[in-house]
Amino acid sequence: MEIKIYQVDAFADRVFEGNPAAVCPLDGWLSDELLQNIAQENNLSETAFFVAEDNGYSLRWFTPGGEVDLCGHATLAAAHVLFQHLGYSDEVIAFHTISGALLVGKSGTGYSMSFPASDIKPVEAPSELHAALGVTPVEILSDFDYVIILESESQVASLTPDFTKLSNLGLRGVVVSAPGENVDFVSRCFFPKYNVDEDPVTGSAHCELAPYWAKKLGRAQLVAKQLSKRTGTVQCEVVDDRVILSGNAIDYMSGIITLKA
């Protein structure tokens, strides 16, 4: 069996920036075990798999530690592969996922993705969260992640979390954010539960963060920066119950996975 594989740096204008994702176009779905093994072998934060349907593509995402319900950068990478390598010619790609329909089209900054907006709510955080981060939050909220709001960009940048403690929390992960010095807001994202201690650039987290900061700052269009070592910029726009995330994607490599029967 041979499977085509692409590695793409998403939310990046050059290689070695943004968030790398593997993308595997499939003719039909393989077993979950095999999909997970491929993701583990790739050892990237996400591997995206898609299969053509009559009205778009069925899309799934796997981390080295398991399948996830939503992933922005690997969706961007999958759209890039379709537009740039597989001859997709319509204006918008419809991906059908466990989190609903995700629409991706070309834009001035590369690609724009329409995702469902998250409505994060204040919560009482477990004591392990405070111990793991070692900071006093301004706010603690949650949806599919714990969202921790801090006072300043410097606080976000200087965090040194205890990943063992974070891996024991019940939600997907922990997203830490604050007002930015040169952008509207900054963030860092930690998902040790899925063997991704720190994700370089996390599109799905901006579905939580963009609506929050849009309300706080009183405007729908925002520029965000994720303060990982690789770093990356995400253009955000909140439109009703959707978040439009925009960024570029760059090829790093392509190849063939060869599996013996």
TrEMBL record:
It comes from the Bacteria. Belongs to the PhzF family. This is Putative isomerase. The keyword Ribosomal protein does not apply. Pfam families: PhzC-PhzF. Transmembrane segments: none annotated. Keywords: Isomerase. The active site is at residue 46. InterPro entries: Phenazine_PhzF-like (IPR003719). SUPFAM superfamilies: Diaminopimelate epimerase-like. One of its GO terms (molecular function) is isomerase activity. One of its GO terms (cellular component) is cytoplasm.
